[in-house]
Amino acid sequence: xxxxxxxxxxxxxxxxxxxxxxxxxxxxxxxxxxxxxxxxxxxxxxxxxxxxxxxxxxxxxxxxxxxxxxxxxxxxxxxxxxxxxxxxxxxxxxxxxxxxxxxxxxxxxxxxxxxxxxxxxxxxxxxxxxxxxxxxxxxxxxxxxxxxxxxxxxxxxxxxxxxxxxxxxxxxxxxxxxxxxxxxxxxxxxxxxxxxxxxxxxxxxxxxxxxxxxxxxxxxxxxxxxxxxxxxxxxxxxxxxxxxxxxxxxxxxxxxxxxxxxxxxx
Length: 266
Known about the structure:
This protein is α/β, with parallel strands linked by helices. The chain contains 10 helices and 7 strands. The protein has a single domain, classed as Rossmann fold. Strands 3-2-1-4-5-6-7 form a 7-stranded parallel beta sheet, sandwiched between helices.
């Protein structure tokens, strides 16, 4: 039996399961033999992937077509989690746009708050409380980003929410570890996902190392239970080391802002 199935049980929930890094998590967990609660608002992509994984790996998949900005999204998800006795939760879903802060509407800002902050915060609270009350082990992975480590123009709401996700996971790692619950913030850099390509970055002399979603998912699952925060990709880890340990924060933020200007402002 796979080690993570032995530890976390036979069901995993993936929020943002149908595309990009979420799809990679779904595929990797299915390959382990885990049954899946697949959550996404892209219904056609969700059903296509679910059908493929069920047939290929002979697992059970429950599709949950849901907009994670809904106020009752945590309650909807925890009901499904309880029914399946699911003990592994992977939250990949995020609202992301490259734009000037003042170009965001009030609805945009609410969506950043709902999808990236409110829903995972309440869901993790319900999920971990159930596990502690039942004295059962479990696991939580939430995706963070290099954009959440330094403040940069053009990604202000997104980067701010990713910083929140990182601190949330790091804090929960220490508080929930005594209860047998593993928590990880996986920090990703540029990754070949539909959302990243849709932002239409322009490269000049300096081009970031773009990871494959499969690499990020594999890395996160490998480090769950070992670290509170894990940065995916060797070059990303080197960047974090240099920019956090060697350069003053003002210089590091200045370089990242210069890079964002070159990539998105010409």
